């Protein structure tokens, strides 16, 4: 496909007709569907060492429904479309973040409890060692002075 043909095709694909559908009327109510259309294109050309020329390109278009204009009794309302796939994906993402965060909180709390228990054990050990040191110090003093020290 030549680049000028590509541009013409892309222009046709990304026109206002792609954004708003043909009006549909039934029982005095007119609907005009709306969509979000996005796309991109690229192309280029060149010449090789033998003088042969070539060109090419490509484009892509994506369209998603966004809603519809509803015209009834001279009043126009916009009725948004609900993208169920997007809602499910968003809900799944939120749940995944919740479970990962919850697991981290539980892990941190358990580590804190283990740390608290270890600190309590060290305090008991230190208190016992302090008592032994006091007893040993008293017995040394009593040996030096020759009189027993009160406990």
Neighbour order of strands in the largest sheet: 1-2-3-4
Number of DSSP-assigned strands: 4
Rg to the nearest angstrom? Answer: 40 Å
Strand content: 25-35%
Structural class: alpha+beta
Question: What's the number of domains?
Answer: 2
What is the count of helical runs? 3
Structural features, described:
The protein is of the alpha+beta class and 151 residues long. The chain is built from 3 helices and 4 strands, in the order ααββββα. It has a 4-stranded antiparallel sheet, with helices on one face. 1% of the residues are buried.
Strand-helix topology:
Elements: H1 3-13, H2 16-19, E1 24-26, E2 29-47, E3 53-72, E4 75-80, H3 84-145
Search tags:
2 domains, 4 strands, 151 residues, alpha+beta, four-stranded antiparallel β-sheet, single chain, 32% strand
Provide a compact summary of the structure.
This protein is an alpha+beta fold. 51% of the residues lie in helices and 32% in strands.
